[in-house]
Design goal:
Blueprint (H helix, E strand, L loop, with lengths): L3 H16 L4 H8 L3 H8 L7 H11 L3 H5 L3 H19 L3 H14 L1
Helix pairs in contact: 2-3
């Protein structure tokens, strides 16, 4: 089971990788790890070695503090985006949509 730290760290690595313009493949190659290993790290399903962490910090040009500073605002953003994606999914399920409607109206 992934921990909150693994999940958040993976998201931070992914965000910095994309900002720096690296594809998963090219970044994994620079790190000396398999692309599927990097994918598992970014999704929080795996943790890296200390050596890989040092390489990540070096290649991305960030400090460890920057990498480990988790912004709760992003967590709220991710929760919102998740909810919106599920609402889109529910458009075709009238019964569940009615249940969700009742839940939301009871909260407001």
């Amino acid at each position: 089971m992934k921990s909150y730290i693994q999940w958040q760290l993976g998201k931070r690595i992914q965000r910095f990788r994309k900002i720096r313009g690296f594809s998963q493949e090219s970044f994994a190659e620079k790190l000396g790890i398999a692309t599927n290993t990097l994918s598992s790290i970014e999704t929080g399903n795996a943790f890296m070695t200390a050596q890989t962490l040092e390489k990540i910090v070096d290649i991305l040009g960030v400090t460890p503090a920057e990498l480990f500073t988790f912004d709760d605002y992003n967590k709220e953003d991710e929760m919102y985006n998740y909810i919106i994606s599920k609402v889109e999914f529910l458009k075709s399920d009238k019964e569940r949509l009615k249940i969700l409607y009742k839940l939301v109206t009871s909260l407001l």
